[in-house]
Design a protein that fits this description.
The protein is 26% helix and 29% strand. It has helices spanning 13-24, 31-40, 102-116, 131-135; strands spanning 4-7, 45-50, 53-63, 85-93, 121-126, 140-144, 155-160. The protein binds coenzyme A. Residues 23-24, 91-93, 98-104, 126, 129-130, 132-133, 136 line the site of coenzyme A (COA).
């Protein structure tokens, strides 16, 4: 059976948090943050559902801001529905469902929605080992981030949509 890609509902909170936690560990977003993201911008919170279970998530915010190291973005503090940018916070798939194209499906849908909404670009921060993944989708490396979230080094990337 194929996974369904759809917008998250408030009732998906436990499933989304479980994916976040299993994927990012202590660096991941708290349940409260996940709840806020679903409530504030459901259009920017996609889930992959298989047999009634959430197996993958892709989420972010819409904003005019571009400073990715600003932690308050992750609390949706600078959410602007008509903001020109999308900032991705999480792209995560349950370990047992990885390597089957699920992140690819989620990210492609996320990019499609951002284009439909006439956003200018999608920005994100990732660890060095994921730069190659995002490059496959056309993301360009900006450089090292000022952020030291979780005590690690982050790289900033963007995808121009116009
Ligand atoms: C990264 C992650 C989302 C990939 O999910 P996935 O469903 O296994 O990825 P896919 O199978 O859709 O792979 C998509 C493409 O990325 C590539 N890819 C996957 N993981 C990669 C990695 N760690 N490094 C480089 N490329 C990678 C795949 O080879 C594939 O390329 P292809 O289409 O040319 O074959 C998953 O491993 C995960 O949840 N990791 C923990 C959370 C995380 O670190 N998220 C990303 C950083 S924000």
């Amino acid at each position: 059976m194929q996974a369904i890609i759809r917008q998250a509902l408030t009732s998906d909170l436990e499933g989304c948090y479980s994916v976040e936690k299993q994927s990012y560990g202590p660096e991941g977003a708290s349940k409260e943050r996940i709840a806020k993201r679903i409530k504030t911008y459901p259009k920017g919170f996609l889930v992959a559902e298989l047999n009634g279970k959430i197996i993958g998530i892709a989420n972010g915010t819409s904003t005019d801001k571009e400073d990715l190291s600003n932690e308050s973005l992750k609390d949706m503090a600078h959410f602007e529905k008509d903001g020109k940018n999308i900032i991705i916070f999480s792209l995560a798939v349950l370990p047992e469902h990885r390597g089957k194209g699920m992140a690819k499906t989620l990210l492609n849908r996320f990019i499609e929605i951002s284009k439909e909404d006439k956003k200018s670009k999608i920005l994100l921060m990732c660890k060095e080992n994921h730069i190659a993944l995002y490059e496959k989708f056309g993301f360009v490396l900006i450089g090292k981030s000022k952020s030291d979230h979780g005590g690690t080094e982050w790289h900033e990337m963007y995808l121009g949509l116009k």
